[in-house]
Every structure is written in C-alpha cells, then in structure tokens.
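step: validate -> pass
step: tokenize input -> pass
step: predict -> running
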Amino acid sequence: MCFTKQGGKIPVRWTAPEAIQYRKFTSASDVWSYGIVMWEVMSYGERPYWDMSNQDVIKAIDEGYRLPAPMDCPPGLHQLMLDCWQKDRAERPKFDQIVGILDKMIRNPNTLKTPVGTCTRPISPLLDQSTPDFTTFRSVGEWLEAIKMERYRDNFTAAGYTTPEAVVHMTQ
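step: predict -> pass
step: emit ->
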C-alpha cells in the first residue's frame, strides 16, 4: 500500500504524482488526495486502483489514466474528482473552490444530473459563474423545497423574490 522512499513511506494510491516524484507536498497535492478520498466514498470503500501494484499505479497515472466514475456517481461529482487529478497541479481547484462546487451541488441538485463533457472548461462546470438553470422549478417555493430550504420561503417572499427569475438576478 505504501511506497518506501528516502524519508519514509508514501501512500501511493492517494498521493499526487509530484509528491511521489519530488516529495513535494502542497495544498495542491492534498487536493489530489481529496479527490481519491471522494472516489473511495462514492465507491463505498473500494480500493483505489484495485489490485494494481504501486509501480503500475504510478505508471498508469503518468500515462494519463484516471479512476472511472463509481457506479451511480453523479457525473458532476466525478468531474470534480477528475479536476482534482489534473497532472499540472496549478490546474487543480483550490479547497475553497471545491467547497463552492460542493455547496452548489447541494443547493441545486439538478447540477448532479448534468452530463460530463457538456460544459466548457473552467476547472469544473460548477465553477462557472453563469446563471443557474431554474427551468425545472415553477416557483421559488418549489426550488427551496428541492434544496431543503423551504423554511426560508417567507423570507424570500418578504424580500420580493417571488419568481425563480427574481432569484436568479439576486445580488448579495
């Protein structure tokens, strides 16, 4: 499970390529590891890279192989994993961006149904700052219900946000 290198063992399956090769551990290498942990969670504890040897894992990653989406994993979540596994560490999302992406997924469950590859790149389709798609909701109340926030219905109404279009154009 671990690869011994001068200075200690490295958990190869969870470690970013640059951390294995240069022993360079950064927030970006932590993001890689976070992506692997997300994959483990979504696969209900399956072992990353299954029965591959550590050397085979290192070689496969270097050749561009990435773990496939676990069964029933929402495409948007797998895309986030793939973003975490960018070879160039500068291309990986930062943790605050990951929090924002996951927050958007929680607040707009329809984003979990977006097929992978339908959005053009920023780091992740969910980092796109464009207007969210409210076409599936007929009312603010229905939307709030879908994101488990129906207790705020009166607040939205009192503030004048009575249509999904009004919510889309809301500013902080």
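step: describe -> Strands lie at 2-5, 8-11.
step: cleanup -> pass
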